[in-house]
Amino acid sequence: MSIFLCFVLLLPLFIIFLKNIKPSKWNLPPGPKALPIIGNLRNLQGALHLCLQNLSQKYGPVMLLRFGFVPRVIVTSKEAAEEVLKIHDLQCCSRPETAGIRMISYNCKDIGFAPYGEEWRLMRKISVVELFTAKKIQTFRHIREEENDVMVKKLSESASRRPTVNLKQAIFTSVASIVCRVGFGVNLHKCEFMDEDSISDVMHKMELIQTVPLFSDSFPGRVGRFVDWISGQKKRLGNLFSDVNTFNQNILDDHLKPGRKFVESSDIIDVMIDMIGKQDEDGDSFKLTTDHLRAMIGGIFTAGVSTSGITMVWAMTELIRNQRVMKKVQDEIRTTLGDKKERITEEDATKLHYFKLMVKETLRLHPPAPFLLPRETLSHVKIQGYDVPAKTQIFINAYAIARNPKYWEKPDEFNPDRFLDSSIDYKGLNFELIPFGSGRRICPGMATAISIMELGLLNLLYFFDWGLPEKDEGEEILTGNDDALDLVKIIRH
């Protein structure tokens, strides 16, 4: 019976494969030999960004791999990245869809995952105007400073009671509090429908939905969806999404309450609700829906918390590992700002130089995500002389580019000094360092993320001294490939 079931499942896949083995007229990028049906899935072992980094050393900086029936071009050089993100930006600026992405973004209705077009342009315009202009970022400055004051107070209280703290949790809680106040006007410390623990749980589920692959991602169509259903993958994904949707809906319901009082001022969700109420009068062809609102809430929360939180955790991990750099950064901070400040402001960060180089080096060594969000070609393009047909997915391995010895001396070493005499920056113009992407789909919240990171790290490094915990936890920080700040030694300076 099991053999017959396998035959029934694989027969349609084999027929589709036979239709796709016609000789190609294109000069396609090189890559490992693909097997029938599964393509190059057998070549993917371990962490995907490391696996593809290793394969690129054999097959070159532009590779073609087939994930089942889905062709994906992998880019691992700054030259090829520049062609995708700058020279052919318009032809390569759409997004592919996966089952998880469609679910988390309410059928691709947020900024990050929407395909290129009118809908994406309007959503991006709203987010930039309401959140990410220089004036808006400055308007929200007091929120970032107040939430960092709360973090410092809590850490000081913990330091007075015990020698170690969960720094990772403290960082993510602080960042989430900032994002919720700025993005949604929700104060986590006074909120009735969520707290620190639920925020962490929702964040984890959002990441799982986006990153866990389904069978239909590599084998699109009815057969793939059937396997998702019969294997239980679709149900598990739906269970995760149920909690995420509840989180998004709670924030939306809070905005729809009659007589709602603004905690700070009107936020981006208020603006979009107002636009929905007026759009029938305006007669525009494109209409905002409540799904756009939920997608915007989820997108702001996921991108805002993960980008800044992950980078801050990695910065502190590397500083604790590298006490020479830690001392140099803290000496600059405390010498420049003095020892008697009771409160750090964003203006203080503008006075520092080596501190900012440390943040830049963290973004190089540990980009918020090893791959930029995948792109999909709208038409045929040539990348480094190779043909890339329309509807091809392009993955840019920002991690591999930022650790390429062709561009960086001792690339695996955490050393902010490399930027002392360098004009290379992370703002999308230097393609050997693109943690936020580049071109039309560059992260619109880059300046906000940097503001959150710099102020948070500055508070941690000014008010406290940090060290390794004893025994196993300390060894994990020193030798592990992952951040490990669940327990670190803290001393109030």
TrEMBL record:
Gene3D superfamilies: Cytochrome P450. Its main location: membrane. Pfam families: p450. Residues 1-23 form the signal peptide. Heme binds at residue 443. GO terms for cellular component: membrane. Its cofactor is heme. The chain crosses the membrane at residues 295-317. It is a single-pass membrane protein. It comes from the Eukaryota. It is found in: Membrane. Keywords: Heme, Iron, Membrane, Metal-binding, Monooxygenase, Oxidoreductase, Signal, Transmembrane, Transmembrane helix. GO terms for molecular function: heme binding; iron ion binding; monooxygenase activity; oxidoreductase activity, acting on paired donors, with incorporation or reduction of molecular oxygen. Belongs to the cytochrome P450 family. This is Cytochrome P450.
